[in-house]
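Re: [ENG-882] Designed sequences occasionally contain unexpected residues at chain ends

Forwarding the minimal case from QA. Structure tokens:
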């Protein structure tokens, strides 16, 4: 009898540990950090560049949140740093909201583009990830590195953990066998890293925020933007990449 009780207790402990290790719902805070001075690296150290660098900080950071369950995630700005001084067109929008329908592989994104609010409703992008052997610890989770690219040539570096079973992440990224806790876009000099992971169950209201805007698709928005910024050179290309996240 004593042996049976011991076995039951052992199984209970093992089950509890397994349940605590694998997470299916919760809330994640990400710090998005941008190096604003790096965009001037190829401009030389003329007086105009020097004055711009004096007027804005080298780095700005803001806090974003991801509420998620096994079949849905919602990503938006959680807390703006009101002391930030942003380079043009880089200030985060308080009204941008990104919903990923993970079961049906759909996205619904309310996004401010210039002075127009769009509602992108489309299929989730089918990114071709290459998973590597490199790992790093993020917010207490062991994460594996994966790489892909968007817009044909913009490389994306992600770190995901299979301890969170949901295939989602910051912005519109996902498609990996676990949650993305770290993300970097070197071409844009921007990173996202999880600073806090909370075990919770988001409410229906949190998972179904009201969205609005001019309805469009990834392809249509991209076409409209190409026409609007065709003469903007490198700055226009950077805007295209940023709005494609």
């Amino acid at each position: 009898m004593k042996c049976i009780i011991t076995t039951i207790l052992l199984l209970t402990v093992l089950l509890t540990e397994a349940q605590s290790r694998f997470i299916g719902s919760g809330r994640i805070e990400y710090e998005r950090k941008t190096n604003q001075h790096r965009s001037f690296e190829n401009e030389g150290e003329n007086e105009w560049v020097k004055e711009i660098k004096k007027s804005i900080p080298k780095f700005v950071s803001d806090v974003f949140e991801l509420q998620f369950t096994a079949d849905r995630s919602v990503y938006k700005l959680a807390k703006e740093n009101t002391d930030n001084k942003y380079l043009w067109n880089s200030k985060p929008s308080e009204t941008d909201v990104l919903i990923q329908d993970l079961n049906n592989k759909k996205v619904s994104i309310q996004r401010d583009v210039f002075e127009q609010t769009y509602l992108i409703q489309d299929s989730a992008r089918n990114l071709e990830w290459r998973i590597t052997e490199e790992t790093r610890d993020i917010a207490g989770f062991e994460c594996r590195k994966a790489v892909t690219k968007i817009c044909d040539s913009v490389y994306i570096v992600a770190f995901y953990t299979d301890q969170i079973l949901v295939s989602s992440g910051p912005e519109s990224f996902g498609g990996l066998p676990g949650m993305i806790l770290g993300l970097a876009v070197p071409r844009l000099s921007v990173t996202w890293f999880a600073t806090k992971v909370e075990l919770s169950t988001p409410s229906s209201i949190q998972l179904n925020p009201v969205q609005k805007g001019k309805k469009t698709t990834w392809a249509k928005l991209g076409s409209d933007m190409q026409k609007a910024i065709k003469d903007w050179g490198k700055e226009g290309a950077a805007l295209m990449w940023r709005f494609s996240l």
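QA comment: On inspection the terminal residues look reasonable. The first helix runs from residue 2 to 21. Proposing we downgrade this to a documentation issue.
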